[in-house]
Amino acid sequence: MTTRSDPEWPVSGPTTLQRIVDAIGARRRFVVSSHSRPDGDSIGSCVSMALALRALGKEARVVHKDRAPAPLLGLPGVSGIEIADRAGDDFEAGIIMECGELARTGVAGLEGRFLINIDHHPGNAGFGQINWFDSSAAACGEMVFDLIRALDVPLSVEIATHIYLAVLTDTGSFHYSSISPRTFDICRLTLEAGVDPVEVAHTVYNSNNIGRLRLFGCVLNAMRTDHSGRIAILHLDHEMAREAGGTYDDTEGLINEPLTVKEIQAVVFFKQIEGDEYRVSMRSKGDVDIGAVARELGGGGHKNAAGCTVTGPIDALQQTLVKKMEDAVEGQESGRAAHRR
Ligand code: 5GP
Ligand code: MN
């Protein structure tokens, strides 16, 4: 089997997957973790990895700082995730999924341990004893799929369901440019293993509460666009959430709504943390690279999905972000024009 690697990233290469297989073979007790506020990819990757380790007769605990988004609690392996801010002592190796820096786990006690670092985001700090990066993977779950095969673990329906969850959610339900023929090969194999895609989609997307819908209405009603109409600006503060009867957790997926408008090329969503501090999420279409915008501001992510945390007066922050995003939209358009010439 071949491994995919990105030559620009550190310590990767064709032997990385085999080194991970050997490192797992030599150990018995594992902690599997990912970034705080886990999403479908973190949860799918961690749970499928833990199930595969248990299938090999090993002990595996999934430890996350934060609870899964409410709809994902309906998936079979999610109730077994431990919510804690410490990893405990009783493990020989940590496997850390899609986490650019170890601190983003929000779980103490991993540092200084034997760590296997698996990620598909550019800019990973390479904090593991073994670091496996693949920016061509549409989800970390694709990499976990490769690893589970390399470990010779049969694809049970439970493992396959969590792999499918990771791919479904991290491709924005098969919308993002990160999708490759491999993505569909993996999905096909998960369906052959017994995954019911209708049921997974129903669990993930049709299990919300009414407060979430009202919150969507409230935030979208207040949406603004830049002068060109190509960039949408969303904003949420604690008062709006309270009035709508929703919580910040209910905003999952909201940022994608403006992209359903033909003219809109990119979206920026400001969520007030406290005072002047804002969590910023960005999404874009096609070749508009908002990952670069996020990295400029100390955050990270991919070309079409990225984020950062910023502090300052909201008007000035919005101006700065919108200007950078306009440049990204224009960069993509001049690239297209050059291509046509
Ligand atoms: P979201 O908008 O869903 O919070 O994040 C979108 C993407 O950007 C995710 O893939 C996430 O990992 C990445 N991302 C978001 N915020 C940050 C950040 O502060 N730092 C880094 N390195 N990546 C981020
Ligand atoms: Mn991911």
Summary of the model, kept short:
This protein has 341 residues and is an alpha/beta fold. It has ten helices and twelve strands. The strands form two sheets. A six-stranded parallel beta sheet has the order 3-2-1-4-5-6.
Report the uncertain regions: 1-12
Q: What spatial order of strands do you see in the largest sheet?
A: 3-2-1-4-5-6
Q: Please state the overall shape, judged from the principal axes of the Cα atoms.
A: globular
Measure the end-to-end span: 40 Å
Radius of gyration: 20 Å
Number of β-strand runs = 12
Kindly report the average pLDDT value. Answer: 93
Strand content: 15-25%
Helical run tally: 10
Helix content: 25-40%
Class by helix and strand content? alpha/beta
Key traits:
6-stranded mixed sheet; binds manganese (II) ion; binds guanosine-5'-monophosphate; disordered N terminus; 341 residues; alpha/beta; single chain; 37% helix; 6-stranded parallel sheet; 10 helices
Describe the 3D structure.
It is a single chain. Mean pLDDT is 93; it is low at 1-12. The chain has ten helices and twelve strands. β9 (266-274) and β10 form a beta hairpin. The strands form two sheets. Strands 3-2-1-4-5-6 form a six-stranded parallel sheet. The longest helix has 27 residues, at 314-340. The termini are far apart. The protein is of the alpha/beta class. It binds guanosine-5'-monophosphate (5GP) and manganese (II) ion. The site of guanosine-5'-monophosphate (5GP) has 12 residues, from β11 and β12.
